[in-house]
Amino acid sequence: MALRIPVKCLVFTAVMSAVGNVLSAISILLVPIAPAVPIGPITISVSFDMSHLATFLGAVQFGSSIGGLTGLVSGLVASYEYGFSKGNIINGLAIPIGKAITGITAGLLLKVLRFQRGKRKNILFLLPSIAYFPEAAYTALVFLVVLPQVVGVPSAMFYPVLVVILTKAWIEMIIIGLLLVAILNSGILNALSR
User: Fold this and answer.
1) Cβ distance 60 to 120 under 8 Å?
2) CB of 161 within 8 A of CB of 44?
3) How far from 190 is each of 99, 106, 120, 145, CA to CA, in Å?
4) How many CA atoms lie within 13 A of 148 on its CB side?
5) At what angle do helices 64-74 and 89-112 cross, to 10 degrees?
6) How far is it, in rounded angstroms, from Cα 39 to Cα 61?
7) What is the spatial distance between Cα 132 and Cα 80, in angstroms, rounded to a whole number?
8) How confident is the model at residue 36 (pLDDT cuts 50, 70, 90)?
9) CATH number of 7-192
10) Beta strands at 42-47 and 32-39: parallel, antiparallel or unpaired
11) How many CB atoms lie within 10 A of CB 66?
């Protein structure tokens, strides 16, 4: 049985993924926090990454599948910048998966809460912060279990970086929540998805 995604959803996903990657590239360049932190044989970078705005727009407009797919694809710039370009294959592979987890979670939360487009948009300010919890746990797993095992460095070496990553991520989620509400209240998203 083939997965059938309407063309409208695919086009929206492609546009939002492109927007997410552009937002990622711009925010990474403009707001570096720790450009190169050597930990054993790998280097970790930390900077703002606003690509999740596209992830949440996809989840709000079309649900968990499109939110997850948008998160996965819009994580490619971050995947390269934080992972592959630093020789860190684990982060290069893990980042898009984490972003997909957040998109899927956001869509599922909207479904469980029976969110109806056009009603109670301001409550969506909280959506990014709540939907990020599973990705935060996944990020902790990658940094405290997977990376230490693969690179042979004690997990304690990753704690300071993980704290910085999670702190900046929740700051991003607050900013994205504000932007999400502003975009939804403006009606721009409805015009894009027609």
Assistant:
1) no
2) yes
3) 23, 18, 16, 42
4) 15
5) 160
6) 40
7) 21
8) confident
9) 1.10.1760.20
10) antiparallel
11) 25
pLDDT of res. 25: 94
Give the chain's mean pLDDT.
89
Higher pLDDT, 103 or 87: 103
| 124 pLDDT above the threshold of 70 | yes
Reading the block at residue 12, the tokens are 């929206």
Q: How many CB atoms lie within 10 A of CB 47?
A: 18
Name residue 123's amino acid: I
- Give, as one character, the DSSP assignment of residue 45: E
- 192: confidence class by pLDDT, cuts 50, 70, 90: low
- Contact partners, residue 107, CB within 8 Å, separation at least 6: 59, 62, 63, 64, 65, 66, 67, 68
CA dist., res. 55 & res. 122, Å (int): 18
Can you point out the beta strands (E) in the chain?
Answer: 32-39, 42-47
Question: CB-hemisphere CA count at 13 Å for 72?
Answer: 12
The predicted pLDDT at position 83 comes to: 86
Query: With contact defined as beta carbons under 8 Å apart, do 190 and 183 qualify?
Result: no
State the Cα–Cα distance between residues 132 and 172, nearest whole angstrom.
Answer: 10
Q: How confident is the model at residue 119 (pLDDT cuts 50, 70, 90)?
A: low
Tokens found for residue 160:
């300071």
